[in-house]
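Table S5 (text form). Sequence records supplied for joint modeling of the two-component complex.
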Amino acid sequence: MSVLRFFSRRSSAPAARERLQLLLAHERAVFGRTDLVAQLKDEILAVIAKHIAIDPEKVRITTDTKDTLATLEVDIEIRTPNGGLKLAG
Amino acid sequence: MAEVLVVTSGKGGVGKTTSTAALGAALAQTGQSVVVIDFDVGLRNLDLVMGAERRVVYDLINVVQGDANLNQALIKDKRVESLYLLPASQTRDKDALTAEGVERVINQLKERFDWIICDSPAGIERGAYFAMRHADLAVIVTNPEVSSVRDSDRIIGLLDSKTEKAERGEHIEKLLLLTRYDPIRAERGDMLKVDDVLEILSIPLLGIIPESPEVLKASNLGSPVTLANPISAPSRAYLDAARRLRGETIEMTVPSEKKRFFGNLFGRRAA
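The corresponding structure-token record, covering 360 residues in total, follows.
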């Protein structure tokens, strides 16, 4: 009986590792990178604003992590020449 | 040049105070001058683990507030030359610590000691913040257990943003000290392995302290484990870690009591 139980017993450490990896990927995005995203947003905007007129309200920056791949998505709305003309007019 | 080291973890009960005492004593045993500071205001325990609880007259708060000078507050260890303790206050409120006061004390200690080891309280409140604030180097004490690893990850994030060094844009070195490790349970798959924790936290390893009854025995006696029983498995792990802190390259092992017995037997014969 005890031999059977020994062989059928699943080890728990792999579950701990997987749960931690999932949880920490999320928590790092919430706690660890808040400053980084804000800083990136400011610096990217400053560079682009030198050349193109942009509305800081219409910029979206998001990060995402899937398995080993982390992505940084920067979404900036740029006024079309028409819109620009309208504003100028 | 003085090194300011913070021993921290986020989670309580993982072995910060034990490790502060053991690493402090181990460094002093190699001839370095060392002061260990208890930042756990209101819940001090480093004095008790070091066996100096009846010799506390003045404390960190008294020095921070200017009611006593450093010489009055520092307690010299009776066993190791060059090891000193600066205790925390047991009666005062943790709000009695001030940023300017702590900075002044650390700067004064830098002139006298090779190592300033700050024992952080658990949590991420003021005391933990002051303990890490001036650190050049952080030792993250972690148990191979989910809640400890999670809290260590959080503390690593804080070290990278809230320390003076990080604010200056410099890199703060963070080293993992894995405590209460049981190689047999890890091998059986019932405990996170060293490599699991290293992969998750991605910081370099300072040492692996095996689970051992010697640690409790030493604290019962009020002695850092490296002094109470220097040839025990945890002591050898702490002594190796202290040598790594001094820049030596030492092979990473998990010391065990059995190996020690044979090691000594052969060692003696060879000598």
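Note: Confidence is low (pLDDT under 50) at residues 84-89 of chain A.
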